[in-house]
Predict the structure.
Amino acid sequence: YKRQAETSVANPDARIVIAADTVTDDPELFRGCVAGVFGYGDTSLQRAHVYLGHGPSLIERPPINDALGILQFSECMQWDVFSGLLRSSCIGGAVDERLERALLDHEIRSLDRYELPIAFVINFLAGSDYTCVRFERILSKLIVLHREAPKRQSLVQWLEHFDQCLKAAGWPGDGVPSAVTEAVVSQWADACDQLQRLDVVLPAVSRGEAIKRLRRILSEMFVTEVPADPRIFIVSAEEAWLLNPSHLWLVGAHSDAFVST
């Protein structure tokens, strides 16, 4: 594989296809194995001209997890959910307030509380030496949005509410986003478009129901890295025949896999 990978990079006409049904079973594990086989120390295969048919599920990406955490904001949150937001790098002010938020997270954990009223957190911040001005403002904005939202409304209206919440929280973070983050945010928008199309067939729903449907859509989407000039394709057996390969391997198709006659 490694030798053929090196050959394919040198030969722009090569189209090497590795067909493996296991590519969809555990994408992260398979991804790491591929990087190891080809001799690369990281799991970014773009520079190796490798196209991996399925990356990890979109819902596993940190920006998506953090976005869902923001949408599930309430005035009384489980401490682990709140801690995830507090430590998130995809929320406004995460870089400037990194140390203060880490110290606050440690302090809150030491309280050993299963649930945290947000009003308690704001009062705790006001009486402490921690300077988390941006985070405190985010909490205050989210409280207002949470209180103003009706119990039930259409999916389109919930999507508007979700967008307001994400903007209030500064998602997906400050600074210039990386190419991966941009791709994830773009796919988030695609998932929201899919959810919006359900609006014509569904009645008014609760926020929880809207988030549940959005989660389901996200869990069925995959993050795929597409190099500018792909020459090695690692895909399922069903997809392999569409690619007109110059070289083809079927993973697992060795002599021990066949019954001798």
